[in-house]
C-alpha cells in the first residue's frame, strides 16, 4: 500500500482518488476549492463519453484510450447512460456529415425514419445522420459527487486546502493549467456552454450537429435540463461566455430543435481546457522537491470525463508495478 497525495479535485483527480483508494492505497485529495471542485474545466463540461466521435484524424489516441475508459465507466458507475450518440446535419452541411462519417468509426448511417424513431423531438427535419450506438453520457457534477463519496467511503481523505509537500510516497498532480509552472507546453482551449430548462423537449442521448465553426452538441441532463455547447477557442481566458459564442450556440440549438426556443436559460459559463500541443493526454513522471515521484496527469483537452478513468488505471498500474503505457506515460525530459 502506497501513501499517495492527489492535487486537484476535477474529473482527473476524482478518478485518481476513487481508483487508487479502491485498490487499497492511502489517498489524500487536496483542492482549495473543495471536493469536488467546480473551479476547473470539469465544472464546465457536457458529460459526453464519445470515444468514436472524438476519434477524428489527429485524435486517434482519444478514441483508443476512450474505448478502454468506457469499460471502466461501465464497471464502476451505475448512473452511466448508454444510449449512443446521434449526429445530424442541416441540408447545406451534408458534405460535412459525410466527411465526419468517413473519418470516424463505430457508426451506422441512418435516414429520416430512423432519426425520428431515435429522437422524436427532431421530427422529420433531418434526412441523413450517423448513429454511434456504443457511446454514452453522464451528468458531470452528479458523477463528480458520486466518485468523491465513493473515494471517501474507500478511505480517501478529502482536504479543502492547497497542497504542501508531505511524506507521501507518490504525488499525483491533476491541476490542469495550473501545472504550467512545470509543464511549459500546456495551453488553454476555451469552451463556452449554455444550460437551459425545457420541459417540453425530450432527448435520450447527446445529439451533435455538424457546424462550420463550432463542435455543436446538446446533452440531456436530469430534470428537463439540456447542456448546449460548445466553443473550442485557442485562449487562456477564463472569463464569462461571450455574446458572439452564446448567440452561435443558441442559434444552432434552435435550428436543431425549434421547441428549444421556449427554453429558459438556467445559466451560461465558460472555462479553459488544459491541452498539450498535439491535444493528446499525458502522464509525465517528474519528482517533488524531496525527490519523490510526482506524476503530472494532464492535457485531457475536450476529453476530461471520457479519459480520466483510463489515466487513473495507468497511474495505479505504474505505482504498483512500474508498468508503462507507451505514448501516454513518459519520463520528464524537460520538453513538456
UniProtKB/TrEMBL annotation:
<comment type="similarity">
    <text>Belongs to the DAMOX/DASOX family.</text>
</comment>
<dbReference type="GO" id="GO:0003884">
    <property type="term" value="F:D-amino-acid oxidase activity"/>
</dbReference>
<dbReference type="GO" id="GO:0071949">
    <property type="term" value="F:FAD binding"/>
</dbReference>
<keyword id="KW-0274">FAD</keyword>
<dbReference type="InterPro" id="IPR036188">
    <property type="entry name" value="FAD/NAD-bd_sf"/>
</dbReference>
<dbReference type="Pfam" id="PF01266">
    <property type="entry name" value="DAO"/>
</dbReference>
<dbReference type="InterPro" id="IPR023209">
    <property type="entry name" value="DAO"/>
</dbReference>
<feature type="domain" description="FAD dependent oxidoreductase">
    <location>
        <begin position="6"/>
        <end position="317"/>
    </location>
</feature>
<dbReference type="GO" id="GO:0046416">
    <property type="term" value="P:D-amino acid metabolic process"/>
</dbReference>
<protein>
    <recommendedName>
        <fullName>D-amino-acid oxidase</fullName>
        <ecNumber>1.4.3.3</ecNumber>
    </recommendedName>
</protein>
<dbReference type="InterPro" id="IPR006076">
    <property type="entry name" value="FAD-dep_OxRdtase"/>
</dbReference>
<keyword id="KW-0285">Flavoprotein</keyword>
<keyword id="KW-0560">Oxidoreductase</keyword>
